[in-house]
Amino acid sequence: MRRKRLTFAALSALLILGGPGMAGTLPAAAAGRAPGSAGPSVTAASVEPASDGVVTAMQRDLGLTRKQAESRIAAERTAAAVTPKARRAAGNAYAGSWFDAARGRLTVAVTPDASPDTRRALRAYGAEIRTAGHTARQLDAVKTRIDRLSAPSGVSGWHVDPVANTVVVDVVRRHRSDNDVRRFLDQARKAGAVTVRTVSAAPRTFAAGTVGGDPYYTGNVRCSIGFSVYGGFVTAGHCAQPGAGVSGWDGSYIGTFQGSSFPDNDYAWVSVGSGWWTVPVVLGWGTVPDQLVRGSAVAPVGSSVCRSGSTSHWHCGTVLALNETVNYSQGAVHELTKTSACAEPGDSGGSFITGDQAQGVTSGGWGNCSGGGETWFQPVNEILNRYGLTLHTYTG
Questions:
Q1: Which of 85, 145, 275, 329 could covalently link to 191 via disulfide, CB atoms 3.0 to 4.6 Å apart?
Q2: Is 315 labeled as catalytic in the residue annotation?
Q3: Domain boundaries, given as residue ranges, for the chain
Q4: CA–CA distance, 266 with 235 (Å, rounded to integer)
Q5: Which residue of the set 238, 313, 315, 392 is catalytic?
Q6: Top-level class of domain 1-79+137-396
């Protein structure tokens, strides 16, 4: 299915930006700063109401009523804005935080030695408080030690779980008894607080062979555009190496991969030209209206998140973990965010967005959009920092 044309709102954004007529599939967006300025600009979540399309998709994928979806979006915006303030307020006692969907507010974990003043400050921000045994810094150190190990293919990944206050190591069920997996788990447990979880399948990337009518191609590989930056767009690193040429959905030349990293990371950026340009939009593929992007405030664990890709189009889920190391067959990739949103081959590089805030680009996962699964994305702010790019956002 060839993508729908941009909605009236997106087209208005083009007119305000002074761009000529649309030449091809140019998706997502970023944090607004003047072209040429270094580094990303992360803005607080917008007070704009959620679009009908986002609300409808959350009703479908998360099993919510319309009122529940609207209330959750508003609460998640508040939680995203409060998270960095709460972390600063907790100081050395900070043990992690997450969005509690049932309560509709941010929960902050602190160690038993957190002072009364610290707890009062957190409550003043509207946060729930939970006591935990390990600080976030201690758990991050455990994960870093595990990152130095060589993981067998039967280990699919590991991440800090702030709710359980431990580092969770995921093992593919059929490999749980493998000797190399057992040896890895023995080493991992020596690193500190570790819990082992069994998962049904190993992750894979979501690139695909060439088919007609989708966003961009490199050789015989199809991937999805992520978010627009000034001068190009960001996407997944496993889609191509630096210097690779890129063609659009209509077969015309878009530009070139200027930077790419995979494994270790899974990000890349493509410069655009030849009549193509960038717009601050995530495609809705006719499932929902195209979404304007107004910033890149990070959604905490527990928040809803939606994904746009050239194969499965638009689907929503929940943020399950931050800063996870994922062990693909090609090698480990670090600092990914795990979600319950589904994806399929060809969706690689596509946009993850919460409300109107850009989150990251699709890396990989397991399952599909018929039977369900999990996905990971590379956070967009990390990509911007790595390449000195500026996200393109709508500021109207």
A1: 145
A2: no
A3: 1-79+137-396
A4: 8
A5: 238
A6: mainly beta
